[in-house]
Amino acid sequence: MKADAECKEISDTAFYCIYVDAMLGWLARMLRILFGAEVFYSSSIGDSQLLKTNCLVVTRDEELFRQRRGPTILLKTDDHVKWIAVFLRLGMRPFEKTRCPECGGELIKISCGEAEAAVGHAIQSAECWRCVNCGKYYWVGSHWRRLRQLVREAEEVRAECLGTG
Ligand SMILES: [Zn+2]
């Protein structure tokens, strides 16, 4: 069976900061909101920077993966659910911490009345947050339920990262 991903030099501290390669914007948002990870993602991050960093690098580029020294994950499958499954398998725990998916800023709990006033409509949620960096508002809505569903699916699939013990 073809592996879903290849891993190298992954340790417990590998997830402290994560560089996500170009074209993986969806994954960057998921790593922030599901795991609260500090994620660097921008189309202007070049290969030379990705080769240098001590942070974990997630890429789909085999050449970059071979050249890298340091913690790296090469995603080989196109299946987004399996991408999340790889991170769960590596020990990341969902819904313990969270960050703004768009900018990576910290989310602070606010009253939903404040959020309602800001977005201009009623919010059916017991909990609301605001990003301290970009000011975006979040609450437990249909998007959140889709995230829970995604994690449930990811917990059920087998995902293998070649190179991990
Ligand atoms: Zn933000």
From TrEMBL:
<dbReference type="InterPro" id="IPR002782">
    <property type="entry name" value="Mut7-C_RNAse_dom"/>
</dbReference>
<dbReference type="Pfam" id="PF01927">
    <property type="entry name" value="Mut7-C"/>
</dbReference>
<feature type="domain" description="Mut7-C RNAse">
    <location>
        <begin position="19"/>
        <end position="150"/>
    </location>
</feature>
<protein>
    <recommendedName>
        <fullName>Mut7-C RNAse domain-containing protein</fullName>
    </recommendedName>
</protein>
